[in-house]
Amino acid sequence: MQSPVTRRSFVASLGMTAAAAGRGRALAKRTSKREAVLSLLDRGAMPDCLPAAFFIHFDEGSRLGRAAVEKHLEYFRFTGMDFVKIQYERTYPARPEIRTPADWKAMPRYGLDFFAPQIEAVEGLVKALEQEALILVTLYSPFMCAGHTASRELLVQHLEQDGDAVKQGLRIITESLLVFVRECIRLGVDGFYASTQGGEAGRPSDARLFKECVMPFDLTLMREINQACRFNILHICDYVAPYADLAPFLDYPGHVVNCNPHLTTGALSLREIARMFGRPVMGGMDRKGVIVSGGQDEIRRAVGDVLDAAPERFILGADCTLPNDIAWENIRTAIATAHARGLPSR
Fold it and tell me: Which of 19, 208, 228, 248 is the most exposed place for a label (fewest CB within 10 A)?
């Protein structure tokens, strides 16, 4: 594995060009949602209005294939969100034969046939929306897929017993995911929503294991997508457990960062996160908060509060996927409020 990129070299690679001499920071009129979101990466431009997007898992019958295409389109149209994130639903099957760290070397490789139902959804959405909005594909990390294979608890236990043995399985999983990633890129996606886990507070108990056994495989995938795609979101997922520190992720690729600002050591502001990572931030709304349980006026006020505290280059969203049973009207209200309110002023 290559050594992690430095934060300075990564930020330079984003292509955030400085404005030409004499060119103001005036808003440029955009012709599509694609351009509006992409302008977040251009220091010499700003979108017409503040972009927003929220994500949910759809019902079991709408998660793969053509049914997923239709449900994603319905959700995109109804909510008015500014890009499409294709939910990843091809979960790695359980392998009960993995009982010891040494068993990970027998991890099977999955090819395009395994990913076919997910790829069908990707291909359909690219064809339907490629000229209208950015298309991002959710990408679970090798560590997350290994957890689906043998349970998160057993995976962590095996890492702590013999990390080198488990790495053999993580390497195979990474190779399989690269097959999926490269096919999505060939089909024309604009980027990925790359989700990482494994570095949460105390999980595993030795932080060295994250750097040696989890991070290298994350970076293999993320370097691949960063070289090929114009817009990737780094999602630091706290669905399983919170984080004590975001520092291990500062050098991870990703044009935008999305994470929960509430750590075990205290809360960070959205502006602090933007300064730490040197890139735009997505988030602001608690995935279990007012957007789920509040009335329409409460949601509007909550969005206003988020925008008051947001960095200049920002996408309104949640810290992770919203509950499946959320009322879509709540999501539409949050997005419409962001569009009407406009950009944070600094």
Answer: 208
Instruction: Check whether 285 has a pLDDT greater than 80.
Output: yes
**What three-state secondary structure class fits 170?**
helix
Query: Is the residue at 52 inside a domain?
Result: yes
pLDDT per residue over 92-104, tens digit each? 999 999 999 999 9
Residue range of the domain that includes 142: 39-341
Residue 6 located in a structural domain: no
What CATH number corresponds to the domain at position 101?
Answer: 3.20.20.210
Alpha helices in 214-309, H assignment, sequence order: 215-228, 270-277, 290-293, 296-308
- The answer to pTM > 0.70 is yes
Q: Tell me the C-alpha distance between 2 and 13, whole Å.
A: 17
- In angstroms, the CA 142 to CA 156 distance is 13
Give domain status of residue 22, yes or no.
no
Sequence-distant (6+) residues with CB within 8 A of 60 are none
Tally of CA atoms within 13 A in the half-sphere of 341 that contains its CB: 24
Distance CA 44, CA 27 (A): 9
Neighbours of 19 (CB within 10 A): 12
Rounded CA-CA distance 290/124 in Å is 33
Q: How many CB atoms are located within 10 Å of the residue 71 CB?
A: 18
Q: What is the spatial distance between Cα 28 and Cα 310, in angstroms, rounded to a whole number?
A: 21
Q: Is residue 10 part of a domain?
A: no
> What is the rounded radius of gyration, in angstroms, for the C-alpha atoms of the chain?
20
Query: What is the C-alpha separation between 100 and 249, in angstroms, rounded?
Result: 29
- Eight-class DSSP state of 28: P
Split into its structural domains, the chain has a count of 1
